[in-house]
Amino acid sequence: MELALSLGDTPKPFSLFENPNKGFSIVLEQAQKSLDEKRGSSDPPIQLNLLPSTPVHPSPHQIPWLNHALGVETVRVTNANRFRLASVEDTTDEGAAVSSPNSAASSFRMDFSIMNGNCDARNNSREGGVDSDDDENGSTRKKLRLSKEQSAFLEETFKEHTTLNPTQKLALAKQLNLRPRQVEVWFQNRRARTKLKQTEVDCEYLKKCCETLTEENRRLQKELQELRALKTSQPFYMQLPATTLTMCPSCERVATNTTGAAATKNTASIIAGGRHQK
DNA sequence: TACGCCAAAGCGATTACATCA
DNA sequence: GATGATGTAATCGCTTTGGCG
């Protein structure tokens, strides 16, 4: 195992002041390399890519579930008769809002009550569900809270797919005793929450990256200062020829062998006399 | 094929309301 | 009970996309 080590192989001594990146030192080269690797390039300043690595919400075309259009169609066909009332009245959101909610609710409620048992009363009183739309006088916006069961079911559905096609929206609305518009809004808001959360996570990650890089930069600056100080006090060593470090595979000690080609007699003698004891 | 129009869907921003400490 | 913070349902305006003439 050999470690090639360049100790000032530039023909011009003390060139580091002219170009600190050239023939300066092992540490600096490594540091520069390290930074360059992190940056991807040595020239531009550190640039954080703020774009999320993966799309927060995939486009509809990227959702595998949505590609099962045939399956969806099957569902639609088989449910067409069952959902006819809802389909006619709720195909559009406005239709859902304008159409008589009671007529839809009366046919929907049983499904969801079967699913979650006791939420029916709360749907009528607190959440309102489909029914309560008639109660409002139109001047004040009603705030409907979904029941835990409804939210849980929507969550489960969202885990499977983050967007709904109209058929699934209708089916879900029917199952949960909600208007299709409510289901749609819930999914929109849910997507927004997911994106917001992902943004927060990304932000935290970038913060940590920034801290790490700042710390590394500080450390490298310190090393640079130390090396500059070292060079000032011992300028002669900067003219050392390229050196090959040979690591013993058994004891993992590093032995230094100066390549004779670039070595001058002076430096060789210095190394032999002064530094080559260990 | 290119273009304009339109409807539908989705999104970001915001509002409004319910709940809780 | 009043109040501010928080969560979230709902709305609005905009952009994009696809169908159609």
Can you tell me about this structure?
The protein has eleven helices and three strands, in the order βααααααααααββα. It starts with a strand and ends with a helix. Helices cover 56% and strands 5% of the residues. The model is unreliable at 1-138 and 257-278 (pLDDT under 50). It has helices at residues 26-39, 64-67, 69-80, 84-90, 93-98, 101-116, 119-127, 148-160, 166-176, 180-233, 265-275, and strands at residues 2-5, 243-247, 254-258. The protein is rod-shaped and about 85 Å long. Helix 1 packs antiparallel against helix 10. The chain is mostly helical. The structure holds a DNA duplex (21 and 21 nucleotides).
Shape: rod-shaped
**What order do the strands of the largest sheet run in, or round the barrel if closed?**
1-2-3
Major beta sheet summary: 3 strands, antiparallel
Structural class estimated from helices and strands: mainly alpha
Tell me the number of helical segments per DSSP (H or I, 4 or more residues long).
Answer: 11
Element pattern in H and E: EHHHHHHHHHHEEH
Strand content: 5-15%
Number of strands: 3
Radius of gyration: 35 Å
Percent of residues in helices: 55-70%
Task: Describe the secondary-structure layout.
Layout lengths: L1 E4 L20 H14 L24 H4 L1 H12 L3 H7 L2 H6 L2 H16 L2 H9 L20 H13 L5 H11 L3 H54 L9 E5 L6 E5 L6 H11 L3
Antiparallel strand pairs: 1-2, 2-3
The structure holds a DNA duplex (21 and 21 nucleotides).
